[in-house]
């Protein structure tokens, strides 16, 4: 018996929809989440594919997430839109706000969307890719739970605080990156702990503030940021912009709000959109051509663009479908029984 | 005879003004530059203090920089301002645009200032600090000259591409960082080369694309970004936002424009300003208090905030003046003879 199950992308979407609606999510939430989970599985980001259904359902069962929350939009200024997720998942809030964010960016040149009070479990690249699909440049960031120590410190203050960026390309596939400002994803340390494997020294410190290669000690201590004091500065910037500036929780506050339940982190998210047509005016084609020359200077020397592996996986998945471990498939089926 | 000369900040400013006007810079340019050079010396950023007068004068003598250029402002949209530096230095352009940038940020919530066709030799922290002094949150970035290879590559594409950020604090001293996305400043490699000292392995690669500890080989090869593929992604983002988006040169184009003269890099700069009063409305005091709690969580465990050393130096310099090497002082005096 094969250890892998092959599914088409439509099957992934249908399975996700079925699980989510079965566990009480409104049709609108279920569709928004199923779409992003399908995108994650399609791009072979396995930790952001159907695996997320398990955590998604758990967070609803724990009573933290409102599965029926209807996001509400508030026009704050000509350049700023607030979307109150009302303690539902973030993805429907993003989807609800995107058209108005794009409209503001097109009229002002740049605009911000502050999503507030959302539960967050997804990568940011689907969001900045959706902004790039509108022909806009997108930036997204959010705090998470305070697992990461500042440079020179030993106690956790920051979340894994991801930063994502997308630039629209004429080919349709944007230049896009999405990275945690922590040295590594928390899930990777958890995986090492489960497998009893050592972690590299720069990933984390133990509860005494000493560098450690013991994954379990790392989970009791604090993760490190990537890139030393520079990564630490970026992590702080994200707490400020996607926390303090928009009037929502920092990673430490989000952790306190969770109160040990272990649900998806609840916090805000800041999304920026720039319209290159406004910035460039009649020089728009030259601006896009200049960006293409930059990409060519990178790929022409054999270096990869960020997300290139993801786009290659996408092509394979669209043609051949995706494969998931049978054990995971069975865990998901159990959610339907 | 002492090897160090002590000067008051007023003396630093006067000396700078005298040198700059003597070498043909307009009064407005000389004042803008002297102010920022004084700030650099005051904060003990020695490479951004009076030392810069030498390069500043050299770039004017080489005929690249227009010492009399008058920046012109163009309102692109409600959220976007363009300042054409007309091949003058960047600082007067920044100063000229700042009031309108602040006005746009206050009315739109966020705004962008694109400085174009400027020669650039200064740090970005004086600019984001000036934005924070307006009670706004500031971000600034620019390309430079293509000295830095993308992650996984061996040929230079990116500049040292600095990113700076400032958050206003009630105490008056903002939270501020300003770092190169290269592993290290190019000047540090030059200094090691002059002194015949080895450089750490992650700073650069040689012309064959191999990691090197030989500073001279590094200058013939390419610098590395900080933080591996994440730093490389940020460097690309800065080429795109502060180059392609605003219709100005990428670092490779700026290097070609210089044509081997070795003047200050000519390119554009992107500055963003956010008004927390617009984002937060009546929750403004709570938003600022939340930021202060974040800073306290960092400093309370003995970690430093970025720029803390600079602020300590500032305090000393305001009280006791600054010290510069006699040899440097003599080089500067020679510019007046």
Automatic annotation (TrEMBL), chains A, B:
The cross-references to Pfam families, in alphabetical order and at most eight, read:
Ldh_2 (PF02615)
SUPFAM superfamilies according to UniProt: L-sulfolactate dehydrogenase-like
Q: What is its EC number?
A: 1.1.1.-, 1.1.1.154
Q: Which UniProt keywords apply?
A: Oxidoreductase
Q: Which GO terms describe its molecular function?
A: ureidoglycolate dehydrogenase activity
- Write down the top EC class of this protein: oxidoreductase
Q: What family does the entry list? A: Belongs to the LDH2/MDH2 oxidoreductase family.
Q: Identify this protein by name.
A: Oxidoreductase
Q: What is the lineage of its organism?
A: Bacteria, Pseudomonadati, Pseudomonadota, Gammaproteobacteria, Pseudomonadales
């Amino acid at each position: 018996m094969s250890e892998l199950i092959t599914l088409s992308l439509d099957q992934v979407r249908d399975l996700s929809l079925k699980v989510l609606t079965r566990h009480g999510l409104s049709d609108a939430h279920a569709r928004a989440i199923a779409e992003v989970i399908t995108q994650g599985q399609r791009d072979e980001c396995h930790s952001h594919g159907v695996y997320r259904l398990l955590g998604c359902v758990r967070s609803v069962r724990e009573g933290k997430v409102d599965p029926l929350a209807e996001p509400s939009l508030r026009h704050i200024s000509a350049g700023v839109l607030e979307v109150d997720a009302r303690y539902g998942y973030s993805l429907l809030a993003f989807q609800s706000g995107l058209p108005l964010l794009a409209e503001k960016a097109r009229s002002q040149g740049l605009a911000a969307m502050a999503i507030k009070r959302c539960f967050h479990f997804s990568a940011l690249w689907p969001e900045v890719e959706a902004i790039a699909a509108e022909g806009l440049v997108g930036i997204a960031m959010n705090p998470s739970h305070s697992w990461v120590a500042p440079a020179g410190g030993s106690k956790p203050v920051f979340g894994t605080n991801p930063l994502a960026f997308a630039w629209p390309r004429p080919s349709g596939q944007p230049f896009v990156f999405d990275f945690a400002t922590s040295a590594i994803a928390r899930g990777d340390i958890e995986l090492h702990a489960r497998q009893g494997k050592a972690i590299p020294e720069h990933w984390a410190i133990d509860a005494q503030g000493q560098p450690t290669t013991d994954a379990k000690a790392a989970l009791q201590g604090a993760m490190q940021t990537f890139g030393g004091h520079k990564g630490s500065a970026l992590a702080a910037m994200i707490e400020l912009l996607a926390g303090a500036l928009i009037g929502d929780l920092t990673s430490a506050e989000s952790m306190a709000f969770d109160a040990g339940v272990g649900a998806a982190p609840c916090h805000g998210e800041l999304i920026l959109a720039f319209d290159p047509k406004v910035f460039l005016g009649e020089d728009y084609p030259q601006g896009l051509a200049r960006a293409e020359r930059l990409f060519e200077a990178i790929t022409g020397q054999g270096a990869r663009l960020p997300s290139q592996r993801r786009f290659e996986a996408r092509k394979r998945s669209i043609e051949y479908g995706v494969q998931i471990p049978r054990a995971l498939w069975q865990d998901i089926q159990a959610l339907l029984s």
